[in-house]
Amino acid sequence: EAYQSHAKLLEETHNQLLQSTLDAGSYNKLHGFTHLANGFAIHTTPSQAKKLKESPRVKMVQRDRGAKLMTTYTPQFLKLPQTIWANDKGRQKINNNAGEGITIGFVDSGINPFHPSFENNNDNLLINNNNNTSITTSVTCSSGFCGACEVGPRFPASSCNGKIVSARFFAAGALAQSRLNDSVDFLSPFDAAVKDGVDILTLSVEPDEPAEDTVTFLDVFEIFMLLARRAGVFVVQASGNKGPGSSTVVSFSPWSVGVSACSTDRSYPATLFLGNGQKIAGVGLSGPTFGKGILKHKLVLAKDAVYINSSLPRTPPYTEECQFAEALDPMVVAGSVVICNFSAGFYNGTSTLTSILNTAKVLGFMGFILVANPIYGDFIAEPIPFPVPGIMITKTADAKIISQYYDDQTKRTEQGSVIRYGGRASIGEGREAFFDRYKTTVSRFSSRGPDIIDSHRNPADVLKPDFVAPGQQIWAAWSPLSASDPIFEGNNFAMMSGTSMAVPHIAGIAALIKQHNPSWSPPMIASAISTTATKYDHSKVMILSEGYDLGSSYPSTPFDIGEGEYVAFLCSLPKINQGEVEAASGGSCNHPLEHPADLNLPSVTITYLVGSQVVRRNVINVGGKQETYLCAVLPPNGVTVDVSPTWFTIAPEGSQDLEINLNVTQAAKDFSFGEIVLTGSLDHIVRIPLSVLPVSMS
């Protein structure tokens, strides 16, 4: 009741401020913030926003930059302890108590409550409403969580159950800017959370560029995450999909956990069989051509099947990309394996696989091959379920083999018209999973560090991303409406890639840790994951990172895979306006850190090391036994690193200060990497990544 009364008072002050400051009719109030922060969101003009910014009663005003979506088998791949799962006659099933009492909030593009993944699996429903009258909201309270089930189109009150315990939607901003499409955007949670009492908050929708008018850490989005962590919520966010370039991460702050994406050791190889016995590897997720890939079928180049006297445009989408069924002669292509070219339309994004599939179905292709074009080079493709047999040949070298075989087997007139199609081909089964322990790599699209402090991309003394988790070729629950990608329309599951696919893996691990250690703070949970994470694949080889070129890779660094008092950290940033920090955070800059790198993170990042520098860390023994640790260092190139003390004994719940002295021995133009390894007498191993740019020796 006290909170409700205070919230109402804040809402009244918001309205009074708006009415006294802005012109009547010049704004539309969208949201009021009364829990983590005291503020509001409005839709208005730049001139009215300027009036608010100049008001002495307002601490901060920022323009809404919008947000983007950072778009099974993983428990075994992650090597989670089998005690989490109960074994039932050789089959794994979830232990009913795993993660019980922990609530995870997801901020995403929506949820389909009718999907089988969200069926309730226990009899104790948190919501049971038998009222037949019109309902807009049902309230859910359990284990310290108290949320609501907001209903709307395709989201009845019965949607909330023992798995979906609360659902809310926030559409006012999009409605104000007329950005919604009624056919695919529903004003309900179908399209969530600190106030409700979640333990873990996962963000798959977020700004994908730094703010232009402030340091990255003081953006409103970052400040809200700081306030959430201050309230005891473990915040996990996608690090972004702008890799593999450096400083492309969009998870900036040390108080949130940024997750990058990697592949698993599972793949779905597809194979094209030519009539001369050659086998060519490709990408696809379809069944084989008739005859299970053994029986060969006529091979036809789409360009050779175009109507000669057609009045249709003679552009690549019509002549070689298989985009329009009316452009091709059905007498030629029916029952054939048709070669479609990756040409200008695919390169500029106007041509689609969906159109190829439509053409194939209309004209009765036996199958299709989308081949790389030497003009545009190799292309990148992900396995996609095709309703007709299909394969993508992504490398120009392989495409050349197909082209040579086709030319050798095809008889033409002097004018170039085909009089005999002698080439034969088949497509093999592409839906069977293959497992390769050497396969794990940081995904090409996954954003990389170093972290940045501003829109000019100056580096920050914070390691980002924090972790890497499976995020490539993940089978995900999918809405059959498939508004964002028609190729998956009608499917309940889709194979997706993106750092948003990686985020739930870390959230799930955090939930298990939180359940086992309910008193642990979010930084303790993050540190526990970071200091025990591995940088090696299942073959004990360092995880590789994909580069720009198809098939290229290099040994991963902490900027690919990742790794106290946050106001003191903010106040210690170079050239920072401490008044702005105090206004945004509500804290005081009376006791800033000596250096931003002194923030007690489970990693050390120094973006500008001149001569020598001492940084400090404090470790806590969260185990139940006394343990002795030895300190070892793998120093970054051009830097010596000394840790003091070199060994220590720490009691249960005890703490130990570590002093880390770094000295430049050779200047460099780029970051180098190392790590501090603490090896315990009870076989515990703690790793602290080091990322240093040694600028000069003095």
Explained architecture:
The strands form 12 sheets. The protein has a 7-stranded mixed sheet, covered by helices on one side. The protein has a 5-stranded parallel sheet with strand order 6-9-11-12-25, sandwiched between helices. The protein has a 5-stranded mixed sheet with strand order 30-37-36-32-34. The model is unreliable at 72-79, 85-94, 122-137 and 186-191 (pLDDT under 50). The protein is built from 15 helices and 37 strands. The chain starts with a helix and ends with a strand. A hairpin with a 2-residue loop joins β7 (137-142) and β8. The chain has 698 residues and is α/β, with parallel strands linked by helices. 19% of the residues lie in helices and 27% in strands.
Number of strands: 37
Count of discrete alpha- or pi-helical segments spanning 4 or more residues: 15
Sequence stretches where pLDDT stays below 50 over 5 or more residues: 72-79, 85-94, 122-137, 186-191
Spatial strand sequence of the major β-sheet: 15-14-22-16-17-18-19
Distance between the termini: 61 Å
Tell me, briefly, the overall form.
globular
The quaternary structure here is single chain
Could you say which structural class the secondary elements and strand pairing correspond to? alpha/beta
Binned, the helix content reads: 10-25%
Task: Give the strand content.
Answer: 25-35%
| Main sheet characteristics | 7 strands, mixed
Tell me the radius of gyration.
29 Å
